[in-house]
Amino acid sequence: MVNIHKNAHIVYNVISHMSTLVAASSVVRAILVAGITFAVAVVAITVAVSVVARHCIGVVLIYQTGALTEVDTF
Q1: Which residues span the membrane (predicted)?
Q2: 62 with 68: CB under 8 angstroms?
Q3: What is the distance between the alpha carbons of residues 26 and 15, in angstroms, rounded to a whole number?
Q4: CB burial class (10 A; 0-12, 13-18, 19+) of residue 63?
Q5: Where is 1: in which H helix or E strand?
Q6: Alpha-carbon span 58 to 72, nearest angstrom
Q7: d(Cα 43, Cα 41) in Å, to the nearest integer?
Q8: Dihedral sign of CA atoms 41, 24, 18, 3 in order
Q9: Distance of CA 64 to CAs 31, 42, 53, 59, Å?
Q10: Which of 11-20, 23-32, 36-45 bottoms out in mean pLDDT, i.e. has the lowest?
Q11: Do 68 and 59 form a contact (C-beta atoms < 8 A)?
Q12: Separation CA 54–CA 72 (nearest Å)
């Protein structure tokens, strides 16, 4: 009889803590999603900046070689 009561008490504890665990896991999930979103944004910005920088460097090099004049850009 004591064993059954003990098991019931353990089950009750697990069930009562489930809501806390679910709340904690949703917070962890939100943090992970925010972190992943931030990481993706950083990668996208880095790629965009490198593409623009590469383009600008290319234009500067073309200007320096004289292959492109200011008239050609318009």
Answers
A1: 27-53
A2: yes
A3: 17
A4: middle
A5: none
A6: 15
A7: 5
A8: positive
A9: 49, 32, 16, 9
A10: 11-20
A11: yes
A12: 20
The span from the CA of 27 to the CA of 10, in Å, is 25
Higher pLDDT, 73 or 20: 20
Q: What pLDDT does residue 74 have?
A: 44
Quick one: average pLDDT of 60-67? 63
Backbone angles phi, psi at 7, to 5 degrees: -65, -40
Within 10 Å of residue 62's Cβ, how many Cβ atoms?
Answer: 14
Cα(26)–Cα(54) distance, rounded to whole angstroms? 42
**Whole-structure pTM over 0.70, yes or no?**
no
Residue 47 φ then ψ, to 5° = -65, -45
